[in-house]
Each structure stands twice: as C-alpha cells, then as structure tokens.
C-alpha cells in the first residue's frame, strides 16, 4: 500500500500528562517541536487517555497535569498560532477509530510490541494485565491515522510503534479500500489531471508496476500531490491505483527520526522523574542550585587536590550542553590538573541551567496568572483537531458500510 499521505507535511506527536516536564523533555522533544512547527503542519496532543493505561487506579491528578503540560509546552516556545495544541479525550474520534481498527488488528501484533513486555517488567508494582494496556499501541496508531499524518517524530526506540501503525493502516485499507466502481473513478480522476500530467502519471505507474522502479512511484506520488484541481477522494484513488491497491483510506505514516537527546540526569543516567535525577523546567532556583551542588563527580577526586577526568563526571555532560568552548576548556584543564575544585566547576552549570529556566518561568507567568488563556488555546486546538478527525471518520465509516443515510 502506498506510503503517501493526505498530509505529507502534517506531523502528529504527543506526551502523556504525568507531572511537570523536566529538562530532558525540553532538550529531547520540545526543542525539536519548536523548530518543526515552522516546517510542518503540527498537531501536538496531550495524551490523557494514554495516561490511564498505567495510572487508571488514581486519576485525581490528571486534569492538573494536563494544564501543567500545556504551560510547559508554551514556555518551551510551542506557538499556538503555528501549531495545533489539543487534548486527546476532547476528540472522541480517536476512540471510535481505535474501536473500528480493533476489529481487523490481530492480537499477536499487539503482544509483540517491544515495550509491552518491557513495561510490564519495569512496572511490576502495577497490574498491567488489562485490555487498555495491551491495546495502547493501537490507540496510538489511531491517534496518528485519524489525522492522516504523514510524519511521526520519534526516537529510534519508538520506530516499531510507527511500523505497527503502518501495518494496521495497510490491513485496514486491504479490507475496506475496495471501492465499487474504483477503476472507472480512477480513469475519470486521471482525466482531471490534464493530458500532459495524465500521460506522465500512466507512464510512471507502468514503469513502477513492470520494473519495480521505486523512484517512478515516488515521482508519481509527488505528481498527484501537486494537483490542485482534484478532490481529496480522487487523490486517494490515484495514490492507491499506483501500486495496484484500492483507495487509500488511512495513509501510512513515516517515522521522522529525531536527534537523540544529550540531556543526562543528575546521576549521569537518562533524566527521569522515576529515577529521582530530574530538574523540572520551572523548578525554583534554590532547588536547582542544591541539586547541582550535590551532584556526584569523578569518584577519583576524593580530595580537593586529586586530579580528575571530566569524561567520568556527570557534571561534564551538563557543561557540554550549557557551557561555552572557553568554559569547557577551563573545566578540562582545571579538573585534570586539580587546579579547580568540583564546587567551582559546578557554578557555570548552575548559571547556565538557571538562565535557561528563567526564560521558561517568564513565558509561563502570563499563563499561570490567566488560566483562561490556556483554556482558550486548547479549546481552539481541539476544535481544529476535531474538524480534521471528523473528515477522516466520515471516509472510514463510508468505507466500512457504516455511513447510513
């Protein structure tokens, strides 16, 4: 099935509302989102239903966490005029598509998702033998497919989730993309492209189907994408006709690999609230100073006059992010020669982290003082997201024979 999307430049990404976001979230995800919002049509989702998969036994904090998450996004530079910010549960079409896709998705596909067993082993204090936890990868697929997003920004470890989304879409299209009178409708759609483009489309399709030439397929897909005078349904038919399939109802998204975060935790491991090694994006300066001053350093530096090795010190990883080349050179020279102590070494990191956080605190202040602004942003985002999701579901219901007149 074609991997072309109705929204090749459309991106869907989200976060579960599980508490205040930390610097790992900012450097690992939000900085990338802030850049992407000017290059793609971005939909950013607060995934509150996904928070229930592991925290269904205590939902008392979810609402507060939803608003905290949105404030952190805005503080990080996510611009509601450049992207769509919405809450998953406010768009019920996610749940409907999840339900309908569950009818065609094999159980084994869900059980083989790598994080399924990993999370069960990691969170042994929780009962995760629930349908919701087993089915969360399919809900994740529905989140993406209901917007016909062409791209999903993920790290390498999350690519299997995107692959499962592609498989689920492909299987769905196989069952329900056999539109009555498909060939006749395709012929009419080709005519609407004009003689020159119609001839090129047929030529490229023939070359791909007879020779398996992938570049011909991609060129033909781009040709279809460029046609401004054909309807959305005709466009989907033309995509599906290229590789011999039917109408593409749910286009397959692509994984958009994002840079690996270089932001470590206070102990050198990955920054995580569950590890107790995180600094929140909007944490008070006194708390930040205390955390950094008590960070572990190179074990070899027992006394002040013991030389050390920056590469063996978690603080050095912070210097790589927050310090200038000049300061880093000062650290390397001073540490290896015992010319500076660990307390001196940590001060530039404290200054760098606090300067970054000051920006977050200043941006967040307006929203903290006027909660109605956040609610308006989210309300408008939910309306926009729902308009797109409804359009997809109209096509899905029609394809499945559920669009009763």
UniProtKB/TrEMBL annotation:
Record GO terms (molecular function): ligase activity
Keyword ATP-binding assigned: yes
Top-rank EC class of the record's enzyme: ligase
Domain of life the protein comes from: Bacteria
Gene3D superfamilies membership: HUPs, Tyrosyl-Transfer RNA Synthetase
Keyword Methyltransferase applies: no
Keywords noted in UniProt: Aminoacyl-tRNA synthetase, ATP-binding, Ligase, Nucleotide-binding, Protein biosynthesis
One Pfam family it belongs to: tRNA-synt_1b
EC assignment: 6.1.1.2
Family membership: Belongs to the class-I aminoacyl-tRNA synthetase family.
NCBIfam families linked: PRK12283.1, trpS
Protein name: Tryptophan--tRNA ligase
Taxonomy of the source species: Bacteria, Pseudomonadati, Pseudomonadota, Gammaproteobacteria, Kangiellales
